Amino acid sequence: MIYWDHAASTPPYDEVIQTMAEVMKKHYGNPSSIHRMGEDAAKLIKRAREVCAGALNVKPAEIILTSGATEGNNMAIKGTAMQYGGRGKHIISTQIEHPSVYDSCLDLEKQGYEITFLPVDAKGMIDPADVASAVRKDTILVSVMHVNNETGAIQPLADIGRVLKNANPLTVFHIDGVQGFGKLPVDLEEWQADLYTLSAHKIRGPKGTGVLYKREGLTLHPLLSGGKQESGLRAGTENIPGFVAMSKAMRMAAEQTEAFMKEVGAYRDSLLDWIRKTPSLEPNSFEEGAPHIVNVSFPGMKAEVLLHTLEEHGMLVSTKSACSSKTTEPSRVLLAMGRSEDAASSAIRISMGMTNTHQDVKQLLTALDAAVSRLQPLRQEGMK
Ligand code: PMP
């Protein structure tokens, strides 16, 4: 079997697995305990925080260690709304956000906040001019993702940050960086980001860990009440093995970004070439997108059928994103790009990593050729 679902989760580095085991075995003290083992554990967290901060080029005090990006996104959006709701109740996000952002906004809508979900063009891109015209005096938050998890579309964050801060310097700018970190250059200063979410299991770190960057000086209302961990922003005993292992994965991902773009970007180009030469397919990803995600529709065929046919050929791909694959509705992201219901229901996502090889890509193309030829007659049957 060859794994093509790296946007859903990634194989942890050996070093990550070893670190988790080692820390669990030796450093099981509670960092809030004031004896030696507690202090040891607290030191490990301090060091992990420094390494995470280094990978993002920010200060350690700006790092909040979380259970992953779902928590980070909820904390960023609801925490901002709860903190700054007195100043205004308008929030801007987009039609293509991950459910952890999109549904957080919908939750707030039910509580009286007004949400503007910006549209995207046929390539899945936000127009910064739309941000500029949507921002108002009472806009407390703008939340835009770096890279879309279904299509790989990269958003123009520097332009969005600039028009936003020109229009209303008090508006908090949150970026869901999950699919961009380690895959593309990240510059939180240039983007003028106030909040930035990461998840470790997308960069070969452990599941159940993540980072929320919070610019110094910005205040968030905590979602969890209890202890004073994470400067009072996230009560609960820390996941020390996870955080130490995550910090290693973040360091390695940051160091390997250029290599990732080159190696994995070449795989993407081969796939996009093949899609262009196959008339029955419609691409939903483009050369200017992220190096690791290729989304393609096979109109007239349910995505699940194509997925399982590829699985019979030893290729593991996904439909939509892992978080929404259990729903039967067509992809919200592809519909927002103006795709038909048919195209949006027949899309598969192939997402790649550095553990894949050129040989894997060759095998994938052979399997795709075979699957498309085999399903072609059924598809025509269905389209009659
Ligand atoms: N945002 C994006 C863009 C994602 O791809 C994901 C993972 N599917 C998340 C947020 C949620 O991350 P986690 O699995 O760490 O909760």
TrEMBL record:
Coiled coil: none annotated. Keywords: Pyridoxal phosphate. Residues 2-364 form the Aminotransferase class V domain. Its cofactor is pyridoxal 5'-phosphate. It holds the Pfam family Aminotran_5. The keyword Kinase does not apply. InterPro entries: Aminotrans_V_dom, Cysteine_dSase, PyrdxlP-dep_Trfase, PyrdxlP-dep_Trfase_major, PyrdxlP-dep_Trfase_small. PANTHER family: CYSTEINE DESULFURASE ISCS 2-RELATED (PTHR11601:SF50), CYSTEINE DESULFURYLASE FAMILY MEMBER (PTHR11601). This is Cysteine desulfurase family protein. It comes from Paenibacillus dokdonensis.
